[in-house]
Amino acid sequence: MTNEPLTYAAAGVDTEAGDKAVELMKDAVRRTHGPAVLGGVGGFAGLFDLSAIRAYRQPLLATSTDGVGTKVAIAQALDKHDTIGFDLVGMVVDDIVVVGAEPLFMTDYIATGKVVPERVADIVRGIAQACEVAGTALVGGETAEHPGLLEPDEYDVAGAATGIVEADAVLGPERVRAGDVLVAMGSSGLHSNGYSLVRAVVKHAGWSLDRHVEEFGRTLGEELLEPTRVYARDVLALAQDPAAQVHAVTHVTGGGLAANLARVLPAGTVATVDRASWEVPAVFRTVRELGSVPRRDLENTLNLGVGMVAVVGADGVDAALATLAARGVPGWVLGSVADLDPAAPAEDLVAGTKGVQGGAVRMTGDYR
């Protein structure tokens, strides 16, 4: 036993490293601040001026929180940390816009075994850049050093965001009717869901992350780290265009396409999704083949190339597709909504997911 005094640094926490990380990231964070953000970086709480709320007749606040799952293991293995922020912002902010809400501001939380200022700054810069894409202010955050709980090179990220929407502009099942059409928005890849399955498949196949894959035109690691497409402004552009007749929007995350689509359909309706309407990107085909993954598991776990779906009126399809094309988002007609036939077989329907007793989804045909 020694009589040497124990310090916080000796216990594994370096507060000076945290301060350096803030200095490295603060310019990127400031770029997300419009005139509504008050104060600077480093305060106890972020302040956002809500004076504009006076223009709303019945404003509703929307909020969401999420993380990026085990995709962080890929970033850590490749020692590349400047893209994981897009995954975080996409997972959080795009859950808000599905109700038609404009995301106002976001906060983040990073837990790590050891604060490496440059690594933390890379993560936050990515978050800030994605917030710029989404039109969302990054008003605060926290970096926590957890020695003994996490390894020095390990970290996890999470975030929360708040948005606002006029009560009579809320999108959702109440607006959906039989005859509506499903308009898909293409994903940029795996996004941030299903990485436990993907990593298990890669390990089973014995593939290394630096393996060049011809179908990808790059290494496996580069493909797996492809950042999530952030749809916030694209979805809001659709929702605010009367010609597009947007009734509901779903974000295809954990659970796959059918399960998330069922959540935004009213009871008594069924959406039929035509698998032949799009070509599944190479990364999903590779996961299926390497792991002999059953189609049902793939559909219940991965987005398979569909990142968001808008449910629009039949007369709004052309306008919706034109808006997406103008914004550089791949879009196509995925299927349609009809009244549910009580006599139809139920075994091929997906319904009652995430605790929501709404509509149902039927996947038909085969992928191209």
From TrEMBL:
Secretion signal: which residues? none
Which Pfam families would you find in this protein's record? AIRS, AIRS_C
Q: Which stretches make up the PurM-like N-terminal domain?
A: 60-165
Q: Which residues form the PurM-like C-terminal domain?
A: 177-339
Q: Name one GO biological process term.
A: adenine biosynthetic process
GO terms for cellular component = cytosol
Reaction catalysis annotation: 2-formamido-N(1)-(5-O-phospho-beta-D-ribosyl)acetamidine + ATP = 5-amino-1-(5-phospho-beta-D-ribosyl)imidazole + ADP + phosphate + H(+)
Q: Where in the cell is it found?
A: Cytoplasm
Key word Transmembrane helix present: no
User: Which keywords appear in this protein's UniProt record, sorted alphabetically?
Assistant: ATP-binding, Cytoplasm, Ligase, Nucleotide-binding, Purine biosynthesis
Residue spans making up a coiled coil are none
- CDD domains cross-referenced by the UniProt entry: PurM
Q: In which pathway does it act?
A: Purine metabolism; IMP biosynthesis via de novo pathway; 5-amino-1-(5-phospho-D-ribosyl)imidazole from N(2)-formyl-N(1)-(5-phospho-D-ribosyl)glycinamide: step 2/2
**InterPro entries reported for this sequence:** PurM-like_C_dom, PurM-like_C_sf, PurM-like_N, PurM-like_N_sf, PurM_cligase
Q: What is its EC number?
A: 6.3.3.1
Gene Ontology terms for molecular function:
ATP binding; phosphoribosylamine-glycine ligase activity; phosphoribosylformylglycinamidine cyclo-ligase activity
Presence of keyword Cytoplasm: yes
The family classification in the record reads: Belongs to the AIR synthase family.
Name of this protein: Phosphoribosylformylglycinamidine cyclo-ligase
> What species does this protein belong to?
Krasilnikoviella flava
Recall the taxonomic lineage recorded for the source organism. Answer: Bacteria, Bacillati, Actinomycetota, Actinomycetes, Micrococcales
